[in-house]
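Async update (no meeting this week)

Hi team, since we skipped the sync, here's where things stand on the single-chain job. The sequence we agreed to prioritize is pasted below, unchanged from the tracker. I ran it this morning and attached the output directly underneath so nobody has to dig for it. Comments welcome in thread, and please keep replies under the output.
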Amino acid sequence: MSYEAMSQDLQDLLPQLGLVPCVLIGHSMGGKTAMLLALQRPELVERLIAVDISPVETTSSSDFPSYMAAMRAVDIPDEVSRSSARKLADEQLSTVIQDMAERQFLLTNLVEVDGRFVWRVNLEALAQHVDKILAFPPRQESYLGPTLFLLGGNSQYVHPSHHAEIRRLFPQAQMQTVPNAGHWIHADCPQDFVAAIRGFLA
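Output:
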């Protein structure tokens, strides 16, 4: 698992779907993938929106490793109802993830497969490649298209020290902050999130 591989997936998929050029929006890991695609293949991306992430290594303030470990530790018996499974998972996650909104967002990835509840995301692959996920591939080229970096006002993922690298790689970048939003802007403040995107696309 690498950003190069995920970018290649998009390079293959977007033309098949007839979605080039496109407006590409990515959050966190998806934002890093979107940025890399725009840098590698700018002709595929008409506009870029990176949500609460920057093209630098994500610092140790990231809760990503502990969240993955908590999700991997969740134990749900077979043949329980969806509501019971979500309740059990929520209780188990709460020992590590105190914020209820963050837990509810993660629980959207809990799905039933053959009578068992499992995580939709590949936690094993994420855990094996966490160093690559927290990094960002070094790049020399720039993406000259319109770019929005949408930041959560309560998030620590994009620091002022990242701004120089953002401007180097994305010289047309605008930065906009959604107050009272954490890292999951789209979950914390969905109306403000949509309004910011609409404003950028107008």
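Quick observations from my side:
The two ends are 35 Å apart (CA to CA).
The longest strand covers residues 45-51.
Reply here if anything looks off.
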